[in-house]
Each structure stands twice: as C-alpha cells, then as structure tokens.
Amino acid sequence: MAHSDGETLTDLPPSAKLVYKVLEYNGAMTQKSIVEESMLSARTVRYALERLEGIDIVSEDVYFADARQNLYELTDAGEAAVEGASEAAASDD
Questions:
Q1: Fewer Cβ close by (within 10 Å): the C or N end of the chain?
Q2: Known InterPro entries for this protein (predicted)?
Q3: For the domain bounded by 11-88, which CATH number is listed?
Q4: How many other C-beta atoms lie within 10 A of the C-beta of residue 51?
C-alpha cells in the first residue's frame, strides 16, 4: 500500500485508532484476536490494519503457531506515537 503524504494516526478513522489501542495494550496479536478484542467486524479490522501499515505504525509478520494467520504489532514509529501522545497530554496539564 502506498504511503499517504503526511498522514498520521490522528488523521485515521476511529476504527484504526481502536485497533492501534488494542495493539498498544495487548502487544502482538493475530487479526482474529484483534476482531475478538475490539468487537469490530473482520472487514473493518482488515481495513484498519491496512491503514496503520500504510503509515508504518503496524507491522505484519508470520504467526508461527498457525502459518495461515499473520501477527500484527506496533513498529518503533507506533511506539513513538504512544510516547509523543502521552508527552503532549502531560504538557497540556
């Protein structure tokens, strides 16, 4: 998927932000696990993961326990987005 010019996490739809938060709290997960945890439809989770991968916040890897599934986790850029958001919130206080 092509990278969107200047698109950030704040520009993404609420479903993508929810998937991001689920991965932030739970660590690496399969798409099926994200669907169960977020209570979003499988199609919505797929779209959210595509958007998150498109801006390099989430990476996809092979899930060795079941090679039919992929494992999704936050990248270093995704972790930095968490830290940046928490620092911005702290400075607002």
A1: C
A2: WH-like_DNA-bd_sf, WH_DNA-bd_sf
A3: 1.10.10.10
A4: 23
Q: Which residues pair with 62 in a beta bridge?
A: 70
Answer whether 30's CB lies under 8 Å from 63's CB: yes
Q: What is the residue extent of each domain of the chain?
A: 11-88
Whether 13 contacts 48, CB under 8 Å: yes
Longest dimension (CA), the chain: 46
Assess contact for 78 and 69: CB atoms under 8 A: no
**Which residue matches tokens 């998937």?**
19
Beta carbons of 57 and 22 less than 8 angstroms apart: no
Task: Specify whether the CB–CB gap between 72 and 30 falls below 8 A.
Answer: yes
> Over the stretch 39-78, which tens digit does the pLDDT of each residue have?
999 999 999 999 999 999 999 999 899 889 999 999 987 6
d(CA 90, CA 27): 24
